[in-house]
């Protein structure tokens, strides 16, 4: 049988027998979508916390839960997925349903892309990042406590701004997750992050970025990769031909690493 057909058949079998649990919980003051396929009352062996990007709804990445659960019987039997909603409602700013971890000046970001003066992006701490990081760190700790796990059974990650806030809590607060997942993130607050990374135990990192990314340019993403690698993080970097997105091949690699 063709391998792709075999994989599809196996996935269909898993989906046919899988009972999906999909609920809304509050951890650390953040509304979270919680998805798993575990029997009622059973605690997971591991939890993945995945944070959405700027302007997206809180459950923007929640479809990854069923996809990953149905892709592997091992994942379905072991993992719970938690998708926190960022604290800032962007509806008053003309983005109904959109959320943000902190405000972003999109015009300034476009100018940075045009001028390629990336220092204006990589060397500064965005206003509001610290407060958002405080809340996400509290959320992760509450999730861990509720599920009876520690860092070694926690996967932390996000897309775009969600990857930035993830990077910040790992470096700043000393989280040592089972895996850090950075989809289309970037280097920020570089001098501080470098010092924090040097004092960190390091952890595995799955990082991806599109070479044609017109939102967060590719070059600063490689600076983040290099900074983490130089400080003992085991970075698996996936560059792809494409824009500001998460391609299927990267999601497949995430499934493999989980």
Please characterize this protein's 3D structure:
Keywords: Hydrolase. It comes from Fuerstiella marisgermanici. The chain is an alpha/beta fold. The protein has a single domain, classed as Alpha/Beta hydrolase fold, catalytic domain (Rossmann fold, 3-Layer(aba) Sandwich), CATH 3.40.50.1820. Helix 6 (129-147) packs across helix 7. It starts with a helix and ends with a helix. It contains ten helices and ten strands. Mean pLDDT is 93; it is low at 1-6.
What labels describe this entry?
Putative hydrolase; hydrolase activity; two-stranded antiparallel ribbon; disordered N terminus; Rossmann fold; eight-stranded mixed β-sheet; 21% strand; globular; hydrolase; 258 residues; alpha/beta; 10 strands; single chain
Give the secondary structure arrangement, pairings included.
Layout lengths: L2 H15 L3 E7 L2 E7 L9 E6 L12 H8 L1 H6 E6 L3 E2 L9 E2 L5 H10 L3 H4 L6 H19 L6 E6 L1 H13 L5 E5 L6 H9 L5 E7 L7 H13 L3 E7 L7 H10 L1
Parallel strand pairs: 3-4, 3-7, 7-8, 8-9, 9-10
Antiparallel strand pairs: 1-2, 2-4, 5-6
Helix pairs in contact: 6-7
